[in-house]
Amino acid sequence: PAHLLDLYLLPPISSTSSHPPPLSQKEPTFRPPAEAEAPASGGIAATLSGLWDMAYDTVVKPYAEPSRAKLLPDHPASIKGKEKPTLVVSLDGCLIQSTWSRQYGWRYAKRPGVDEFLMSLAPFYELVLWTDSQNSADQVVDRLDPRRVLRHRLYRDTTTFQDGSHRKDLNALNRDLDRVLILDVESEHFALQPEHGLLIKKYDAEADPQKADAELTRLIPFLQYLARARVPSLVAEYSKLEDKSDVAGSFKKRLVELEATGQYRAGKHGQAGRFVAQTQRGGEKRGSVWEFLRR
Hints:
Blueprint: H1 42-64, E1 86-89, E2 96-101, E3 105-110, H2 114-121, E4 126-130, H3 138-144, E5 152-154, E6 160-162, E7 165-167, E8 180-184, E9 197-199, H4 220-229, H5 234-239, H6 247-260, E10 264-265, E11 274-278, E12 284-286, H7 289-294
């Protein structure tokens, strides 16, 4: 279709050839055998257990567990205490939609609002792309993010394969979990830490010919608020929203509460709102968002 954006196009493939798998193709499920009663001979049990351990380590583990213990590098010592919160973002269905046809091969549609979303949040977050695609998707991401605002890229080898799904274990990120959120289109992807997940609808370019999708841009005010207000726990603040299926709408209601309690002062005539911080003496210390960030 004319509205599809070719970020990276693979050559067409003949009907007799096997075409490359989609970005989100699942792998066969590997599960350790259920515990059974030990045989009469302890030697046989030990041998079978050893064989299973060897098979798991050599065949299953490279696909089922993250390829390294720390998925992200340590923060530099120079920014200790000033680290940005981390926002993990998925790729297929979230930022783009991938489609394949015999005529064109793989084509990718860019979700409306991607550029605004990334550029609006880059000053406030450590943006991490985490996808269950192979690292061959690098060429797609290069076209999607030419300014490299996505600081890190994590691919399928860093996921945890469990119950037939490639799950993203935030514990492996090497970051303070209180300051980590994940944006995805599949709840299974963040099933290990569901309280950290923001779930949005998967993008469908065919159903959006006018490019009116606003799933990403509607999240910007809430995510900017979390970073600007420097809440001690992003997860705790996120949990205060009434309806997780409508983050933008719930956040508007939350703002009313913050203004009523004096924690946030709305701006006038389009000006930015102001946060109210408590001084050590218990008095109020007011300032703009930027002054709040500099403290």
